[in-house]
């Protein structure tokens, strides 16, 4: 009778462990199946960089690894409307020489800024430029800059670094310690006191034994 009960208990425990295992495996599979990106990016359409998705790396961190030469390449997208050389003419957009750090909508040579941009005030610091270039329309609704924006943070950092090299040369902001790294650093001290306690190991053994109905759990029956 006892043996029989043990067997039943063993099988029940085994079934639980197996179900747990399946749930874990299922979870992993399910997570892995999720596509990294939903849908396809459409050329020429502004990606909705402002909302949703993973939080973007801070601009300070992106700037720390940005490439001004790549920024010069990206600036070709801007060059249809902007010059960046010292004393360059205003076109559809204002000349951008030394714009980094300059007052928003001050410009050079009396460029006629929109009221929308003039109303923003403040200075073109790195944060402001990053927000502006993500989506000019969102940053200053009603702006005259009919440019969708650069959805990739890396592209914005490259072009901002390039702009900074054209007449501004402001010191770059210090990169922020990444949030994931900070969490990692906290884990070892928190789990260290628990580690010497051998509790974790036996529980793993128990599960693996119970998972095999022919294993130790069923042995008393012989
Ligand atoms: C289709 C033309 C066009 C394109 C392309 C364009 N801009 Fe502009 N830009 C403008 C106009 C027009 C304004 C003035 C906006 C306003 O007054 O609302 C402006 C304003 C700006 C300003 C503010 C200048 C100041 O002195 O306040 C910056 C910075 C800027 N653009 C950067 C860029 C960058 C960088 C790119 C390329 C990634 C770019 N723009 C692409 C037309 C354009």
UniProtKB/TrEMBL annotation:
Keyword hit for Kinase: no
Record carries keyword Transmembrane: yes
InterPro entries associated with the record: Cyt_c-like_dom, Cyt_c-like_dom_sf, Cyt_c_1A/1B
Protein name as catalogued: Cytochrome c family protein
Biased composition range(s): Low complexity: 175-203
SUPFAM superfamilies: Cytochrome c (SSF46626)
Entry keyword set: Electron transport, Heme, Iron, Membrane, Metal-binding, Transmembrane, Transmembrane helix, Transport
Membrane-spanning intervals of the chain: 12-30
Region (Disordered): 173-222
Native source species: Sphingomonas immobilis
The organism's taxonomic lineage, starting at the top: Bacteria, Pseudomonadati, Pseudomonadota, Alphaproteobacteria, Sphingomonadales
